[in-house]
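Please predict the structure of the following assembly.
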Amino acid sequence: MTVRVRFAPSPTGHLHIGGARTAIYNWAFARNLGGTFVLRIEDTDPERSTQENTDAIVRAMEFLGLDYDEGPGVGGDYGPYFQTQRFDRYAEGLEELKASGHAYPCFCSAEELAAKRDTGRAKGGFAGYDRTCRSVDAENAAARVAAGEPHVWRLKVPEDRGDIVFDDAVRGETVFSADSVDDFVLARTDGSPTYNFAVVMDDADMLITHVIRGDDHLSNTPKQMLVFEALDLPVPTFAHLSMIWGADGKRLSKRHGATSVEAYRDLGYLPEAIMNYLALLGWSLDGETTIIDAETLKANFSLDRISKNAAIFDVEKLEWMNGVYIRELSAEQFLVRMVPWLEAAGLTTVEEAEARSEWLLRLAPLVSERIKRMDEIVPMVAFLFRDVTPSEAAVAKTLAKDGARAALVAASAALADVDWDAASIEAVLREVPAQLELKPKVVFQAIRVAVTGELVSPPIFESLELLGRETTLARLADAGALCGE
RNA sequence: GGCCCGUUCGUCUAGCGGUUAGGACACCGCCCUCUCAAGGCGGAGAUCACGGGUUCGAAUCCCGUACGGGCUACCA
């Protein structure tokens, strides 16, 4: 039997880091076994669900390279893939449960229920529904329903049902005693299905074989199993993933900074790095591997190596990993990803970038070697695109020092008619410190600040080559005004 | 309150009865060096939450306790 899994986010926000990890695990599991990966949108909460969020989730999935076989935009044989388009199915399912005697109407008011809950809890135990309306006889119940009395439909948990046991693929055998599950609501007063009912209908209709989801659903599992059983449908295998926390051990939230995949993209993180980091946050190949590409992940992923304990999201490690992936890019690959950042900063246009691709290709490796996030590109290369003004602090540390003026003068002279390539530039500039009896660092830092405006920049000889002789000499001359003496 | 889940260096993890408890990030030195990175070498860092068992032997198995988390809605 072929495996079918689903990722089922609510479009109440963008794709969250935790959701992304759940999606990755589902995807990797399906791909590993040649199964089917379904994307289903759980949009039954009209207050908070938006089309914009659905689009954002789909975009984030694409960004990460999580291709799905069925779902919004791609269709499939078991759709529709939006819960709001499946209400007729939920109604059919409910009719089935009514007919088979697994569902009964409950006329208790919200106030009554709250009171029962409180007393149940006060007595120190079960706080679920007390099953009052179970004892309303069928005829009477039918009459009240027909008369239009407000009611919900509840699941009738079988009297003789023993412990509810399932073998969670992550946590192992998990047991809930039957009396800890109450006759929960399947359909609300307005007829709409509750989550625990809709999910079962969907998973059943979509022939889902493995439900891989956050462990906030662990306690929902026995309820859902009872619905599968009432419907006389096979119960899928469950795998519950522990949560991802912020650095303080609390639920990951805005307080911790970026929480959505798109936010990390905008911060300059590569999809490969996000995928790799998340994949290993709660799953391991062998305990040694820290860099793993999508292909290797797909080839080796298994549920039994998912860890049971919650993990803290460590941005520092993600950042390191992002740097690894950036350095792995070829000049051509880096160029493609760099241009949008230059463009967004107004340093160049797509047309200009194309016209100067050979020049940008030389710049690419100088930058990719020394950044961890793509957003670091702009401040590092801005001096190549526009005029610079060194900060006072930079001037104080370099140009204002003894010998700086002489260094700039000597550099200008040396560069006046040398061949304009990094090697030649280096050859003549290397002689300057000795000539002036200055430390190399003093000379090169003075040139760096004069030309780039910064204390930190790409290697100086290559930088000059890329800048061009004319601009270089002009900036060296201008910087004379900033020197001491 | 009830039910359920979790607990190995600061962080992510390996370990599935016998290991000097391994790796990665972060951290600290040294080397390289025109800055910053990268890289190389080395270092520090875990009484495996705690307490009982079982066993010749337990981070690994069992039972408690503590702490953390989830569910307990006509939210998902």
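Chain A has a mean pLDDT of 94. The longest helix of chain A spans residues 17-32.
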